[in-house]
Amino acid sequence: MTDIHVRVLRADEHRQALDLVYRALHHSRSTDEEWTLRAKGHQEGRILGAFLADELIGTAAALTSDTTVPGGARLPTAAVTGVGVRADRRRRGALRALMHDQLRDAAQRGEAMAALHASETSIYGRFGYGIGTHARGVRVHARHAAVRPDIPSSGEIRQLGGVTEVLATMPEVYRRIGRPRVGMMERPEGWWAIKYGRWFGAGDSHEVAVHEGTDGASGFVCYRTQEISDYAGPNFAAHLEVVDLHANSLSALADLWRHLLAVDLVATIETHPRPLDEPYPLLFTDPRVCTAVPESDDEIWYRLLDVPRALASRSYQDAEPVVIEVRDELFPDNAGRYRLSAAGADRTDAAADLHCDVQTLAMLYFGSYRASDLAELGRITIAEQGAAVRADQLLRTEQASWCGTGY
Ligand SMILES: CC(=O)SCCNC(=O)CCNC(=O)[C@H](O)C(C)(C)COP(=O)(O)OP(=O)(O)OC[C@H]1O[C@@H](n2cnc3c(N)ncnc32)[C@H](O)[C@@H]1OP(=O)(O)O
User: Fold this and answer.
1) Fewer CB within 10 Å of terminal CB in the chain, N or C?
2) Nearest C-alpha to atom 21 of ligand 1 is from which residue?
3) 248 and 180 in contact (C-beta within 8 Å)?
């Protein structure tokens, strides 16, 4: 709709935008304490507002970050968050206007991709976002669980104190553990204030335990416990919710679980969404103490903004080359043919073996989907038999891609 216009919000408009998003997502309005934390995470120029006349009707924000891509390179990324449109002004094009301006702004900043957690899967594909990583929560029956004693321990657990120590320590801990998985992202400084500041704010009961190996931090877990029955009966129990967990080895992961299982009076433990290929049952003496939490498992949606750069920045497995033709209506400069080979990716004039749109390319890029499956599902057109299988091999990643950061 033409009478909607989008502009960067001034700092004095940010709280109004936050409350608009909170209402859109059914949260209560921000408290003053929460606002103080949130304000620390806001990045100048990255919160957009959609206006009808002079009335703010929608907003979308982004954090400046980067994402690890196959092969280990890190690509500048707009981590999109805080998207909402007022309930009484929906389906008039406010989101469309916000998304277009936001993507153009990110591209102008030199960001090779935009990324987001989607509230609903039906929204973002039209803007070129495709599912890049997957994740699934794990539920463990703590009273019957024990970590297998033959998994070697590789360090000590140190529990951190209050919010000051946590905020001073955790950014460096996260940096130290590195980026063991494709899809992991840089956590901007303000992210820690927003997330951990809130988890450790007044009236909250979160804890952080850091795993310290011989070379320094190799993992950490942030969790909180909640009573699920009172002291009166014989079955007093608490539920432990893991809200953030990263480890750069399975032995560090096992040690963190030894710590979690040592927390007394806990009946059940549930984790934030984990990588799909983490061999969870094998951590425990009885593999059946854990089950997947039955939820949808798309984690991060990516929009490739600079396709030539993105394709040239990732690594490829050893296989015969394939030429892929990409369509991109919003960023026509991305459109064209690219030759992918074990040596890298370049534009080419050669005939295409496969054709797909930029959304499908994002699904291939992180190795989370096989080209041959997407071809069977009608998302890729094949010009040459065997090309999809070559693309499967070239684009395969060793481990499941996973971000592990909520924003
Ligand atoms: C990254 C994040 O922050 S995720 C959080 C997203 N926010 C929410 O889910 C909060 C609740 N929802 C909202 O605030 C709004 O409904 C929004 C932001 C999802 C959509 O805003 P609107 O201004 O109504 O969207 P807009 O009118 O621009 O619609 C653009 C297109 O998306 C479609 N669309 C919009 N919302 C939805 C939806 N929830 N489901 C399916 N399609 C949708 C529209 O039909 C339209 O389709 P078209 O391309 O065929 O024309």
Assistant:
1) N
2) 95
3) yes
Q: Sheet holding 206-213: strands in order across? A: 156-159, 206-213, 216-227, 238-247, 266-271, 138-141, 290-292
> H-helix or E-strand containing 175?
helix 163-177
Q: Is 13 annotated as a binding residue?
A: no
ipTM score: 0.98
So what's the pLDDT on residue 205?
Answer: 77
Which among 57, 85, 116 is the best mutation to test ligand 1's pocket, defined by most ligand atoms within 8 Å of the CB?
85
Residue 331: partners with Cβ closer than 8 Å, 6 or more residues away = 103, 107, 128, 305, 307, 358
**If you measure from the C-alpha of residue 338 to the centroid of ligand 1, how many angstroms do you get, rounded to a whole number?**
32
Helix (H, G, I), strand (E, B) or coil at 41: helix
CATH of domain 136-295: 3.40.630.30
| Residue 1 scores a pLDDT above 60 | no
Q: Which residues of 269-290 are buried (b: 16+ CB within 10 A; e: fewer)?
A: bbbbbbbbebebeebbeeeebb
Assess whether 124 carries a catalytic annotation: yes
- Sequence ranges of the domains in the chain: 4-128, 136-295, 307-395
List the single range of 173-187, 220-234, 262-276, 314-328 with lowest mean pLDDT: 220-234
Enumerate residues lining ligand 1, CB below 6 A.
Answer: 24-25, 58, 80-85, 90-96, 116-120, 122-123, 126
Q: List, edge to edge, every strand of the sheet that includes 336-341.
A: 344-347, 336-341, 322-327, 354-357, 381-382
4-128 CATH, one of 3.30.70.2190, 3.60.20.10, 3.40.630.30, 3.30.1390.10? 3.40.630.30
